[in-house]
């Protein structure tokens, strides 16, 4: 170790960033390595995160932070798997069951998908939580088993191991409790360090934007998208970012069991046309990344004719899940119907408010240690742009407690109905 490195002190580097100066590659490596080893304590890393929040990071600093976090833990070698290995990541949202459908759909075309997913927190849902609502599904798999599964059936969705990008796992938990989550350099380095370490050749990024997303504006979502695409390109990982609308919940269901059921319905050809079309568009982009050209019509056929569902069943069975359980209705004790009080068109269904409402039912976590109620949630009968008459069903709330009048009132006040019809596009912009 050089004398220069030995002389480094975290407090000096915090001050340097606090004053708006640029940290060197060596300084960032020293900080992240020390944090992963425990020699840089949480309170100093918290101060650094806040300094970054207010002063930002240069393109080089963001790159250095990403690669330092990659180096802080294990990296997965997917070379034993034949073909172009693909991966997909969402920056989080409400009712986001895309992975449950997209991964088996892409795999049904013979493109291997090796994916590590995360859990939900607050108003955002996590893919792992949805999969764990299936009886017996195992999210923790040894690396060798993960690779073997993708070799044999073409897909696997598991949880991130403790040793993969260790510094990011520590830093993310810290950011969550220090109000430093929503800053582009820290989001970009967190996402891309995991994707790079996970070993896929090509990466699709679903960057959500709007009320229910971390990125509230299209400008911020585009900055984040371009940063992450550039990070992927720098390490020879072809990456495409798709900015998608999260101003209302995605699809009809919010809640773990309910979202699995909706995903299955979509794969049976029974889903809403808008969410079905959206999944097909994403699949076409992901297949394009793997150098497979398919028309939307061909992709739609795979989605609704049982081929994607067969792949989903194969994955569930391979990871210990009960296939019959994916078709089981919610066992919530109470189902409360919510009716419209006026006629017109659905103008707003704010994703954040309904995500928080579902969390109050037990479908989400306020803190990481909260236990989930997999059976609770919301199923919307109407979405933005749909016509509705007074007295017509808006949604059903699944709960294990009788809803209070206040909760029903809170729900209804967030259903905005207007006389004019509004339309919302799901895909807002694509960054290649």
Summarize the entry for a quick read:
The chain is an alpha/beta fold. Helices cover 45% and strands 15% of the residues. The strands form 4 sheets. It has a 4-stranded mixed β-sheet, sandwiched between helices. The chain has a 4-stranded antiparallel β-sheet with strand order 6-9-11-7, with helices on both faces. Strands 10-8-12 form a 3-stranded antiparallel β-sheet, with no helix packed on it.
Describe this structure in words.
The chain has 432 residues and is of the alpha/beta class. The protein folds into 3 domains: 3-56, Transferase, Pyrimidine Nucleoside Phosphorylase, Chain C (Transferase, Pyrimidine Nucleoside Phosphorylase, Chain A, domain 3, Up-down Bundle), CATH 1.20.970; 86-326, Pyrimidine Nucleoside Phosphorylase, Chain A, domain 2 (3-Layer(aba) Sandwich), CATH 3.40.1030.10; 334-418, Alpha-Beta Complex (Aldehyde Oxidoreductase, domain 3), CATH 3.90.1170.30. The chain has 17 helices and 13 strands. It has helices at residues 3-6, 10-18, 25-37, 42-55, 59-70, 98-107, 127-132, 143-153, 166-177, 184-198, 218-234, 256-267, 273-289, 296-304, 307-318, 351-361, 405-413; strands at 86-90, 113-117, 155-159, 202-209, 238-245, 253-254, 334-339, 344-348, 377-380, 387-388, 393-399, 416-418, 427-431. The strands form 4 sheets. The protein has a 4-stranded mixed beta sheet with strand order 1-4-5-13, sandwiched between helices. Helix 11 (218-234) links the parallel strand 4 and strand 5. The longest helix is centred in the middle third of the chain and has 17 residues, at 218-234. The protein is globular. 51% of the residues are buried. Residues 345-418 form the Pyrimidine nucleoside phosphorylase C-terminal domain. This is Pyrimidine-nucleoside phosphorylase. It catalyses: 2'-deoxyuridine + phosphate = 2-deoxy-alpha-D-ribose 1-phosphate + uracil; uridine + phosphate = alpha-D-ribose 1-phosphate + uracil; thymidine + phosphate = 2-deoxy-alpha-D-ribose 1-phosphate + thymine.
């Amino acid at each position: 170790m050089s004398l220069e490195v030995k002389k480094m002190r975290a407090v000096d580097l915090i001050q340097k960033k606090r004053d708006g100066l640029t940290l060197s590659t060596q300084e960032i490596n020293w900080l992240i390595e020390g944090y992963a080893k425990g020699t840089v304590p949480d309170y100093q890393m918290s101060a650094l995160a806040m300094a970054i929040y207010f002063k930002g990071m240069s393109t080089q600093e963001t790159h250095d932070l990403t690669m330092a976090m990659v180096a802080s833990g294990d990296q997965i070698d997917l070379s034993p798997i034949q073909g172009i290995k693909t991966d997909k990541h969402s920056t989080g949202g409400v009712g986001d069951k895309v992975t449950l459908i997209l991964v088996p759909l892409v795999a049904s075309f013979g493109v291997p998908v090796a994916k590590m997913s995360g859990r939900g927190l607050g108003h955002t849902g996590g893919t792992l939580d949805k999969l764990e609502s299936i009886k017996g599904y195992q999210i923790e798999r040894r690396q060798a088993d993960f690779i073997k599964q993708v070799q044999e059936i073409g897909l696997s969705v598991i949880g991130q191991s403790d040793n993969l990008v260790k510094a990011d796992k520590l830093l993310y938990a810290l950011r969550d409790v220090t109000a430093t989550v929503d800053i582009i350099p820290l989001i970009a380095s967190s996402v891309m360090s995991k994707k790079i370490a996970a070993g896929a050749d090509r990466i699709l990024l679903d960057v959500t934007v709007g009320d229910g997303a971390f990125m509230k504006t299209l400008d911020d979502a585009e900055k984040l998208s371009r940063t992450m695409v550039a990070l992927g390109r720098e390490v020879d990982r072809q990456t495409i970012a798709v900015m998608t609308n999260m101003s209302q919940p995605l699809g009809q269901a919010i809640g773990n069991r309910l979202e699995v059921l909706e995903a299955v319905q979509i794969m049976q050809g029974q889903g809403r046309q808008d969410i079905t079309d959206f999944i097909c568009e994403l699949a076409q982009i992901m297949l394009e990344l793997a150098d497979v050209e398919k028309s939307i019509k061909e992709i739609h056929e795979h989605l609704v004719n049982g081929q994607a569902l067969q792949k989903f069943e194969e994955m569930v069975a391979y990871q210990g899940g009960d296939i019959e359980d994916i078709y089981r209705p919610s066992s919530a004790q109470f189902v409360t119907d919510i009716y419209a009080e006026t006629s017109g068109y659905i103008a707003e269904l704010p994703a954040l408010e309904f995500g928080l409402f579902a969390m109050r039912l037990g479908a989400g976590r306020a803190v990481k240690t909260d236990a989930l109620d997999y059976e609770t949630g919301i199923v919307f009968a109407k979405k933005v742009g749909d016509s509705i008459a007074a007295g017509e069903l808006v949604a059903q709330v699944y709960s294990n407690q009788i809803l209070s009048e206040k909760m029903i009132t809170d729900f209804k006040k967030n259903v905005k109905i207007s006389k004019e019809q509004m339309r919302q596009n799901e895909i807002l912009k694509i960054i290649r």
